Every structure is written in structure tokens, then in C-alpha cells.
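Is this the right way to post C-alpha cells for a design question? Let me know if I should format differently. Anyway, here goes:
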């Protein structure tokens, strides 16, 4: 029995280290635990990125729905300003318009001579006069209703001469009241009639 134990002990002393080494070699290394700090940082990063993505999408959508405003084109300007070619000379066209305006009971508040003003300052330009006219009876109620409409009054008509042709230009009535509190029916028999007067005077 003693011998057996000794042999057994000897055997264990001889074999145990090798078996232990083999056992350690077969042992699967433990899986590393997730880095909680890294996952937290990733979560925080996503929290910052998602709002940026949403904001970018909103900006793109808004830009598509509301394109940036652009300068007024010539076609748009043509819709707000009427230009007529006069059958008469420059001075005669101005005279005819002044007479026609007064015949309708309207006042001429001023006649602005742009060419003369240019000459006084040593400059040259084509003939150009602006007749400023109107009647307080028609304009006052409009300015009472919409005080800002005073910027559109009195009415004006430009007479100019370019390329050997005399032209008269004025603002369209609907464009004049656009963005104001004034309805077209309120100016149909006053401001709108001024358009017809200019057309008739220059075209006859």
C-alpha cells in the first residue's frame, strides 16, 4: 500500500504538470466584456448626429418649398408698368397730358424735368418728364383706410424720348394697389380711369 501510494504520488508528480498544461491550452479564453464607456460614447454621438440629419432634411424641404427670391424679371416689370408709344412729339405729348388731366378736375402737383436737372449738374440724358397728378377727393379716403397707401400717391406718368420715339409710361392700377388694403372696386372709377385717360390722350 505504501509502495502504491508512493508510486501513485510519483505518478501524480510526474503527470500532473503535463496534464495541467494541456488543460490550460484547451481552455477557451474568456470573451472580453463590452466597453460600456465606448457604447455610451456611441450613443451620445448618435444623439448629436440624428438631430443634425433631421435639421438638414428640414432645410432641404424648406428650400424646395420656398425658393429664394430672385430679382424682378423684365416680364414681371412689364406686367406692372405700361408703356405706350405716342403719336406726338415730346413737348406736345406732355402738353396734351397736362390738359387732359386738368379737364377731369385733377390737380397737377409737379412736373419733374429729369433732363434739366441732369444738365444743371453737367450731365446729359434723354428728355424725360414725370407729371405728378391726382385729386384729394379720390386719394384721401384711400389713405385713411390704408395710411401706407400714401406712398403710391399722387399718380405719376412718365414721358420720355429714346431712339427717336416718344413714349408714355405709367404703373398698372392693380399693381399699384397690390399688397394694400385697397380693393380694385374702390379705385375702378378713379385711379383706373386715369389709365384710360392716358391711353386716350397719347393714342388719339
Amino acid at each position: 500500500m505504501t509502495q502504491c501510494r508512493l508510486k501513485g504520488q510519483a505518478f501524480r508528480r510526474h503527470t500532473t504538470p503535463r496534464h495541467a498544461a494541456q488543460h490550460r491550452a484547451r481552455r477557451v479564453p474568456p470573451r472580453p466584456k463590452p466597453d460600456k464607456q465606448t457604447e455610451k460614447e456611441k450613443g451620445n454621438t448618435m444623439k448629436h448626429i440624428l438631430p443634425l440629419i433631421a435639421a438638414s432634411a428640414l432645410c432641404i424641404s424648406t428650400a424646395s418649398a420656398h425658393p429664394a427670391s430672385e430679382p424682378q424679371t423684365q416680364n414681371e416689370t412689364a406686367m406692372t408698368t405700361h408703356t405706350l408709344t405716342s403719336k406726338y412729339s415730346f413737348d406736345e405729348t406732355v402738353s396734351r397730358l397736362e390738359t387732359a388731366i386738368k379737364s377731369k378736375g385733377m390737380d397737377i402737383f409737379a412736373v419733374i424735368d429729369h433732363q434739366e436737372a441732369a444738365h444743371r449738374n453737367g450731365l446729359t440724358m434723354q428728355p424725360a418728364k414725370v407729371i405728378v397728378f391726382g385729386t384729394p377727393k379720390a386719394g384721401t379716403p384711400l389713405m385713411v383706410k390704408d395710411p401706407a397707401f400714401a406712398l403710391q400717391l399722387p399718380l405719376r406718368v412718365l414721358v420720355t424720348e429714346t431712339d427717336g420715339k416718344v413714349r408714355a409710361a405709367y404703373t398698372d392700377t392693380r399693381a399699384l394697389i397690390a399688397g394694400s388694403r385697397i380693393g380694385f372696386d374702390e379705385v375702378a372709377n378713379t385711379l383706373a380711369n386715369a389709365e384710360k385717360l392716358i391711353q386716350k390722350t397719347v393714342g388719339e
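Format looks fine. Someone answered above. Worth noting: The chain has a mean pLDDT of 79. Residues 36-65 form the longest helix (30 residues).
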